[in-house]
Amino acid sequence: MPRPIRAIIHPHNLEHNLAVIRQKIGQAKIWSVMKADGYGHGIKRIWRGLKASDGFAVLDLHEAVLLREEGWQGPILLLEGFFQAADLVVIDQYQLTTSVHSRWQLAAIEQATLSQPISVYIKLNSGMNRLGFSVSEYSDIVDQLTHMANVANVTLMSHFANSDLPGGTQVPLEKIQHFSSLSLPTCIANSGAVLWHQNTHYDWVRAGIVLYGASPSGKWADIAEYHLKAAMTLQSEIIAIHHIEAGQSIGYGSKFTSEKPMRIATVACGYADGYPRHAPTGTPVWCQGRRCELLGAVSMDMLTIDISDCPEVTIGTPVELWGENLPVDDVAQFAGTIGYELLCALARRVPIDF
Ligand SMILES: *Cc1c(COP(=O)(O)O)cnc(C)c1O
């Protein structure tokens, strides 16, 4: 028997979440963002659940090639563009749309030998200071690219640092609106902007985390009203049960000491599975229809929960670490992070069913 831990991917929930997002954005088209192997879910497993998307946005060339080999014929966007000029051969061969964020990329495009012109997304740095051209140089860059024989069409692209906050898109949006006279197709909204800033939707949105059923803010309560569903459930089982007396400690570092007699259970899941080691005592774990609490330190392969109030729990009882019953954001918040990180960090050793 393998260890009882496994992740389950829910294609119908992806489909559902995509439909929810579609409702929010009117006529705009959707790039479903699948970087980091589909936020840890596995592009191969999930792309069909999202095949009603207008396009897929990825990071690495190999992710784009995988999608083509899987049979996706629609648009594919390289969110960070190409990393070297030689990548343009692959961009040409697989008909990918590339973002352009640095001047060296203009020369590379101009000098490339392509079978047909490519579509480019020109990145504007609207304040995040990560990638993109500054407001002062942007018009010139657009002008250069639009006049290149190797360029078919250009789209204005930018990215928000604070779309999960009220008013968080206002200042960058003003910079973007600077260029409305260029009448370029525009793509700026990420998940937070899709949900909370309607005036950012424009022609295409780039939806990531909401498709997987987690919150752009890292707080489940912020998205509860949209009824998004978890695309991944991480589950395992109880492999041991103990009774401890008051004054006994649990796990490495004896980080938890009981104040009263308790019934505790050992779960086959640890940080080597991608469960956050920083999750403290009190982090919720779903067991037999209710939230139980994590006790003490998370080990490499195991963690311990309090089942004092769950007399019916036995060895072999299923446990959900996050998923359809327990939002990944609720676990992440205890561990001082966001759902994004936990989903992306699911370890290779965890078998995945779908
Ligand atoms: C990751 C990413 C997105 C999607 O972000 P979410 O918050 O997951 O919706 C959109 N655009 C760019 C450029 C990204 O890197």
From TrEMBL:
Pathway(s) per entry: Amino-acid biosynthesis; D-alanine biosynthesis; D-alanine from L-alanine: step 1/1
Claim: Isomerase is one of the keywords in the record: yes
A Pfam entry, by short name: Ala_racemase_N
SMART domains in the cross-refs: Ala_racemase_C (SM01005)
Positions of modified residues (N6-(pyridoxal phosphate)lysine): K35
Alanine racemase C-terminal domain mapped to chain residues: 231-352
GO cellular component: cytosol
One GO term (biological process): D-alanine biosynthetic process
Cofactor(s) essential for the protein: pyridoxal 5'-phosphate
UniProt protein name: Alanine racemase
Organism: Providencia alcalifaciens DSM 30120
